[in-house]
Inverse folding.
């Protein structure tokens, strides 16, 4: 036999359990939403590289970006954008394979295998690249910006 007092206590216990479960699930939901937002930025970055679009690249990069190439050359934002859009070469294709995204607070660690082909403007030579990329994205306000990028030849 159940009386009103038992129902009140059971209801309180169930309410507490439900609130606790929701609190535990909320960070996972937030991380998932942030991971999705970062994934969209990473794809936008890939497309901006193919298009050699200085405005899009500028909007995706933090002012403090440190862009490191597999050759060891490190560029700031202005230098990276100028070199990426100077017309000396064009990307025929860029693939980001086996991408992983891990959000840690206001930072996101993105790793992937870069497989691309460029065509050099001077002689039409096609150059393949095969790299491992590490990108660090930072949440600035409600937006994610590329803060650093490092490449390693494979």
């Amino acid at each position: 036999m159940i009386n009103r007092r038992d129902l009140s206590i059971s209801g309180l216990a169930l309410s507490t359990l439900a609130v606790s479960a929701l609190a535990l699930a909320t960070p996972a939901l937030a991380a998932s939403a942030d991971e999705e937002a970062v994934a969209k930025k990473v794809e936008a970055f890939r497309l901006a590289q193919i298009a050699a679009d200085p405005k899009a690249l500028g909007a995706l990069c933090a002012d403090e970006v440190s862009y490191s190439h597999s050759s060891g050359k490190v560029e700031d934002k202005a230098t990276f954008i100028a070199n990426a859009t100077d017309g000396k070469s064009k990307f025929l294709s860029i693939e980001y394979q086996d991408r992983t995204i891990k959000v840690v607070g206001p930072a996101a660690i993105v790793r992937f295998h870069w497989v691309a082909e460029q065509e050099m403007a001077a002689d039409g030579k096609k150059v393949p690249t095969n790299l491992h990329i590490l990108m660090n994205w930072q949440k600035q306000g409600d937006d994610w910006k590329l803060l650093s990028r490092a490449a390693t030849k494979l």
Q: What stands out?
A: The first strand starts at residue 61 and ends at 68. The chain has three helices and six strands. Residues 12-26 have pLDDT under 50 and may be disordered. The domain at 29-153 is CATH 3.10.450.50 (Nuclear Transport Factor 2; Chain: A,).
